[in-house]
Amino acid sequence: MEHQTTTSARPLGAALKPRQLTMMGLGSAIGAGLFIGSGAGIQAAGPAVLISYLVAGTLIILVMWALGEMAAANPDSGAFSVYTAKAYGPVAGATVGWLWWIQLVVVIAAEALGAAGLLATIFPALPVWLMALVFIVVLTAVNLTSVKNFGEFEFWFALLKVAAIVGFLLVGFALLFGVIPGVQSPGLANFMGEGFAPSGFGGIATALFVVAFAFGGTEIVSVAAAETAEPARSVKKAVRTVLWRILVFYIGAVFVIAAVVPVDSAGLKSPFAAVLESAGMPGAATAITLVAVAALLSALNANLYGASRMAFSLAERGEAPRWLASVSKARVPVVAVLASVAFGVVTVVLELAFPEMVLGVLLNIVGSTCLLVWTSALLAQLALRLRADREGTQLPLRMPGFPWLTVVGLVILAAIFTVGFIGEDSRLQLLSTFALVALLAVANWVNHRKRKDPVADIASEDEKHPALIK
Q: Between the N and C ends of the chain, which has fewer C-beta atoms within 10 Å?
């Protein structure tokens, strides 16, 4: 029987293929944060940033396992929002869902402007506002046609990024082993002595807060799983395939950069280009810029998809206006897509009209959202897995090492939050995000208070969304 995400008159479809889900999970973790932002982590900690990446990578593996376990048992376009609701109540679930939606629609604007700005460095004659508008219109059209088209676009976007990383690793290790003609190997001098961790433990901790955000976006796999024909099988494959590849690509790429580019080098502003230029490859900066543009557009495409599905799920559960649950003949939540992209378009226009006065503030408010979403996912998995084990429920995918590995993930998150509160800039970001969470929680609590029969509403939703984890 074909899987469907809801039991509404015209539910979402199940056209995503396992290969698309797997590449989506891999591509979501390989973004501009790696191609451009990895240099900031090296500046903070030196080559010891590898420790920060190992800790952050371990965290995302644990979060992916937790989300995979819940998504395989209960595939739903609301994903961690639904799981949080089942574990801790509808107000908590709606708060997480709206928090993630707000983050995505703000980031859509940032990615459109970021991609346009990067492309303008290569083609200065093209107006940034026009390119940003074209990017948004084209990718909105992709999302409006069918989930199959979205999946295919994301597959090729991800494949391009993976190919770029593989090519970079081959060149980087050839440089380190001294097999490139006419180019001297830098060796491992950057890793020796005090140069490995010039800022000590404090630098490693600071870098941990910086690099954790590079893995943001991987949670979209749990949302997309609901639109695959065989969710349990697809999620199993995606989780098991993606996890080790994320570590290989991230740790491998950062190792090469840290070995080749000194910690005080201006080249860390574009670390991939700096390595390729050291290897004597002409046009490296242009090539990496184009890959970064593709990475941003891939993220825009995926975030628009994720935002629309979360809005659809919230509407289906009565946590958002019902018209957001409207679905086209192609089983696409058209109104949810348009509503999500509209916020991004308005933000782009305001940012262009009032530079550095709108987008920066919004990004600061939602900057730590992914940390809270990961926390909610681990807490939900902890509660639901204990419930399932207590009731003897069979799960299609089980997170290994439970509950200890879930607790390890929560401890890592607690450490990241602690480091964030120590720094002045990051403290403001965290406080802004927590203030937003408080406002959303109050709004959702008021919404439930206004319902005539909230108990009946919740029972009705459980009937519409049966789960193996209850």
A: N
